[in-house]
Amino acid sequence: MTELIIYLLSAFGISFLAFPLFIKLMESWKVFEGKDVRKIHTRDVPGLGGVPIVISAILTLLFFFPLEVLGQYKFLIASLFFMFLVGLRDDLLPLRPYVKVVNQIIPCVIVYYLFDIKITSFYSLLEIELPEYIALPLTIFTLIIITNSFNLIDGIDGLAGSLLITSLSILSGWFFVNGNETLSLFLIAFIGATAGFLYYNLPPARIFMGDTGALFSGFLVGCSIILFMNMNHGNTATPFTGVVGTAMSIIGVPLFDTFRIILYRLKSGHSPLSADRNHIHHMLLDIGWKHKHITATYVTLQLITIIIAFQLKEYNDWILFLMMCLLYFGLLFLVIRKRRKLI
To answer: Longest C-alpha distance within the chain, in Å?
Structure first.
């Protein structure tokens, strides 16, 4: 436990000290977050917040991890770096949406074949082993959806960073308690670095995460979620009956909003990759909520979902799915009803 605290404080300290310098540098170079229909900021704010997050986490890992230990994670690190480059390229020179998604497939293939991050069954949903021609595309689809869910939720000050810290903290704690201390400490470095970023991203934000940080972070969570499911499946020492439902509870808030917005766009005849202002956090802004209140509500909802899922560990996935749907659709119903009254 002492190691966890030291890693966390070290990563936070490096990140906290690095961000003011990075913000000044971005402002002097006039590298600001681009504006589109989804963005709600009206002033120039630096983007590329993912750069110091990643640098701070890597420095922490290099300080404390022996190189031979980091070598065991070389393919995961390589795939994360590739996703980092995709986000960096999109922040500096925007990619077409489908080009960005196509490039995200490459790191997914890397971890599938070289780091054994793969979905080979439907877990507790259906006890069926999947052939590779299904396992590979299913793994890629899952990783891309989770990756982009954190990118899509990054729409207001403090939101994506807060949800990221919540998800990674639960995963890191679980890995630590269940004997995978190395992976736990690996995630701790990114939790601390993100906490340093969050200090400068809380409203009014002085810097944004950008695609550089959002895609990198989402991909890290996606890989960790699949490892979480694989380590739980068939493990009598950690008896989660609903493996998929429990995993989904950890990323439920961004995942629900992603699926909802994709279905909404398809129903409206638009591309699921198009930008709009129909996210739940946009609706909450429309009815007068402040950034900090929206972020606090999302994090609270995420924690409630996780606590319930862990308490209901003996129940199957369908019970957990029903519980999550009731929570998320209940919130959505209240928001839409309030919005219509105001309009």
So the answer is: 60
What does the chain come to in residues? 343
CA distance 15 to 36: 28
The whole domain housing 80 covers: 2-342
Alpha-carbon span 226 to 175, nearest angstrom: 12
| CA atoms 187, 141, 36, 261: torsion sign | negative
61-106, pLDDT tens digit by residue?
999 888 888 999 999 999 999 999 999 999 999 999 999 999 999 9
Name residue, tokens 């966390």. Answer: 8
Q: Own/partner pairs for 319-323, CB < 8 Å, 24+ apart?
A: 319/242, 319/245, 320/242, 320/245, 320/246, 320/248, 320/249, 321/245, 321/248
Residue 156 DSSP one-character state: S
- Closest residue by Cα to residue 7 from 129, 158, 169: 169
Positive or negative torsion for Cα 267, 324, 146, 121: negative
pLDDT tens digits, one per residue of 234-277: 666 666 788 899 999 999 999 999 999 999 898 888 888 787 88
Distance CA 209, CA 203 (A): 13
| Cis peptide, bond prior to residue 204, ω within 30 of zero | yes
| Distance, C-alpha 134 to centroid of its chain | 24
Distance (Å, whole) CA 302 – CA 310: 12
Domain count for the chain: 1
CB 207 within 8 A of CB 201: yes
Q: Is 122 helix (H, G, I), strand (E, B) or coil?
A: strand
Residue carrying the six token digits 């190691």: 3
Q: How many CA atoms lie within 13 A of 227 on its CB side?
A: 20
**DSSP alpha helices (H): ranges in 157-209?**
159-177, 181-201
Among 64, 61, 91, 93, smallest CA distance to 76 is for: 61
Beta partners for residue 32, in sequence order: 46
Quote the CA–CA distance of 230 and 180 in Å, as a whole number. 13
Residue 224, classified by CB atoms within 10 Å of its CB into exposed (0-12), middle (13-18) or buried (19+), is buried
